[in-house]
Specification:
The structure holds two protein chains of two kinds. Chain A is mainly alpha-helical. Chain A contains 13 helices and seven strands. In chain A, the strands form three sheets. In chain A, strands 1-2-7 form a three-stranded antiparallel sheet. Chain B has two domains: 212 residues, D-Maltodextrin-Binding Protein, domain 2 (3-Layer(aba) Sandwich); 96 residues, D-Maltodextrin-Binding Protein, domain 2. Classes of the chains: A mainly alpha, B alpha/beta.
Amino acid sequence: MASTPDPRTASSAHAKRTFHPSMLLYDQRYRSITIQIFALFVLMLSAAWLIDNVINNLRLAGRTFSFGFLSQSAGYDINQRPIEYTSQSSHGRAALVGFINTIILAILGCVLATIVGVLAGVLRLSKNWIVSRLVTVYVEIFRNIPTLIWILIFGAVMAESMPAPSSFRGDDPASSMLFDAIAITNRGIYVPSIMFTTELGALPLGPVAPSLNWILVLGVIIAGIFANAALIRHATRVQNATGVRPKTWWKSILILFLPVIVIFIALGAHLEYPELRGFNFAGGTHLRNSFLAMWLGLGFYTGAFIAEIVRGGILAISKGQSEAAFALGLQPGKTMRLVILPQALRVIIPPLISQYLNLTKNTSLGLAVGYMDLRSTLGGITINQTGRELEGMLLLMGVYLAISLTISGLMNVYNSRVKLKER
Amino acid sequence: MKKTVFVGAFAATALVSGLAHAQSTLEQVQSRGELICGSNTGQAGFGAPDANGVWQGFDVGFCRALAAAVLGDSNAVSFVPLTSQTRFSALNSGEVDVLARNTTWTFVRDVDLSMTFVGTNYYDGQGFMVTRDLGVSSALELDGATVCIETGTTTELNLADYFRVNGMSYEPVPVDTAAEAQQQYLAGACDVYTTDVSALASSRASFAEPGDHVILPEVVSKEPLGPVVRHGDDQWADIVQWTLFALIAAEELGVTSANVEELKAGSNNPEINRLLGTEGGLGSMFGLDDDWAARAIAAVGNYGELFASTIGDQTPIGLARGLNAQWTQGGLLYAPPFR
C-alpha cells in the first residue's frame, strides 16, 4: 500500500499516518461524524425501545393496532355537515366531515383575522388619538387573554343573551327578524341561503361530491379575476408606452360581476329565507353558536397579533421612504399602497405564516364549545366510542401536520414572490 | 416540535402502561394507602363535592365502601373527576384504580375496549327532559328539536338510533360535561336535555325551579351503570365485584350499618356469618382480611341505606327504587351466594 505513492496523500504529511480508532474522537476531521452517528444510534435505539414498549403493552392489554374502525358505522350524528353524512355513515366519513369543518373554520378564521388585523394595525398608527387608543385597547385585551377564554365568552354571550327561537313566535313576538331575513337566536344566526332552481348535479369526486352549480360560479369568479388582472397589465403597458393610463374601472366591474350575475340568472338563483318551523328555524343557512364562537374567538384573538405584526412591518420602513414619496407628489393613500406596503410585506409575511398556523391548530379547541371539527369527531367521539386512542391520535397528528405543512408551503411561495428581489 | 410531541406521546403511553403492569392493583392501592376512584365531574346525588369539598353521592359511597374493605378507612380515597371523554383513558392508563361514574355496561366497552364491568349498581335508562312550557308530553313529538347531549356516551348513540328509527330529525348540541349541558339547557340553547333518567332527575333537583321541567315518559334504552376496572387483573376485579355484592346481599339479609357490629359477634344465619367474616374465611381468599365486608357495610350502610341517603325518594333527587329493588321485592338486584 505504502509502496504506491498517491499524489494526494503524498502532499500531506498527516494523511500518511495509519488510521487509529482514537482518531474518531480526537481528530477534528472525524469527530463530528462520530458524534452524529452516535446520536443517530441513540435516537434510533430509543425509538425502537418506545415502539417495542407500545407493541408489548398493547399485547399485554389484549389490544390490537388496526385502522379497521374507520370503515365501521359511526352511530353518532354531527350537526354541521358540509357533505352528506348520517349516523349510519362510517367513522372515516365522520373524520372527513370533521376535517372539512376544520378547513372551513381555518380559512374563514384566517380571513377574519387578516381583515381585523390589517385594519387594527394601520389604525393603531393613526394620528387620531381616540382611534389609535381604542385599537390599542382592543389589541391589548385580546392578546392578553387566552384564546379558549375568548371562545367560551363568545359562546356564552350567544347562548345567554340572544332570544330563543320561540320568542319569534305569535302575532306580537318579543323578537323579530333583521330585515325579515336574518334571525339572531340563542342557537346561532340563521341567514338566507342562495338556492338554484336548475341543478346541474354533483361532481363525482369520490367521497366528496361538490355541487356543479357552485363549481361553475367559482370558476367564473376566478376567470373574472384573471381577466381583470390581464386588463390591468394591459393598462400598465399602455401607460408605459404613452404616459396616459386608460380608464379601467368600469371595464373591471363589468368583467368581475357581469358573468357572475348572468350565470346566477341562468341557473335561477334565489334566496331561501329562514322561517320558524316547529322548535327551530328551518331553511336558510344556520351559523351555529359553536361555529360563531370559534370563528369570532379565533379571528379576533389572532387579529390582535396580526395587528402588531402589521404595525411592526409598517414602522420598519424608514420615514425617508414616505418623505420621498410625498416629495414626488404621491398622495398618502398611494404612498401607503405603492411604496410602504410592498416593502412592509417583506417584514410582515414570515410572522404572518406563524399566525395562520397558530389559528389553524387552535381550531382544535372546537370541542370546548361543541364545534364538530376533526378533533371533536375523529379525536373525540370516534376515539371514545371505539377506544382506538393510539390509532386515532396518530391519524390526527398526521392530518394536522399535513395541513400545517401545506399552509406554510403555500405561504412560503407567496413570501418568495414579495421578498426583496436582489438584482 | 411535532416530532417531539410524537415521541412524547409514545413515551407517555409506553411508560404509563409499563408502570401499570408492574404491580397488581391491590398491591398498588395498599402500598399507596389510598384508593383512587374515577368519579363524575359533578352529578348531584351520584358524585359531587358538597359545600365543604367532601365528595358525596351514590357512586362515591361505593368507592368509600371499597376503600373501607381494602384499606380499613372509608376516607382513604381520593376522587378524580373525569368527563365522559376522558374516563376510559384514565382507567386504562392506571390514573385511577376503579371507575364508579355512571358508566353503561356495553359489549364494545367490555370486549373491545378491554374493560371489566364488575356488575350493575344502578339499572337506568335514557330519558328526555324538556321545559314544562314547551307543551311536549311524549318524546315522539320532538321532531326537529335541538338536543343537548354529552359526547362520548352511549346516550349519544341511542339518541341517533331513536330519532332515526322513528323517522325524526334533530339538531345535536354536543357538550362535554353535565354542568355544561345544564347551562346550555337552562339558557334555552337546546329544547331537550337527554341522558340517563337518574342523571336527569339529579340535574333537575339542582335547578332553581325543578317544577318547570318535566322528564318525558319514554325510556329509550337500557343503561346498566356499574363500577369498571381494568381488564387483566382478576383479583382486583373480584374484590370490587364482591364489595358491590356484599352491599346488595347485606340489604337482602337485613344487615345495616346500625346492626353490623352486633351481628359480627355471631348470628344464627350462616350466610350472614360468612358475609361478615365470622366463619368461612372468605376475605383471605382474595387477599383481604375476613372483616372486609363488615367494614364496607359499617362505612356506608347496605345498598338500600346508601340508595336512600343519596338518591332515594327522601332526598332532593327523589328516585324510586324501581328496577333497583331487591329481587325479592320485584327488582333486579340479585347478589350471588356468599359461600
